[in-house]
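Raw record, unedited: Carrier domain-containing protein
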Amino acid sequence: MQPRTVDDVPTVIAQEMGRVLSGEPLDLHRDFFLAGGDSVRAVELITRLGERFSDGTEEASARLCSALLLAVFEDATPEALAAVVREHL
């Protein structure tokens, strides 16, 4: 599901987090690492989000993935990562 609006971004991220963790979507304020994520799964998540939210160019995807990589280790909640994605939309 592509987000219809920027308000849908956290929900889509929560769904992707659930897929990476082989479970249900995360609560919008639940930390990915506290929900069972690790650094390897974080890279998988970042890759998925980069593909999902970039404009399709390799450069845009790389910029978004770089920003998400820095952000995920500061605050790994869907809401926090959505703020980073919104900056790149």
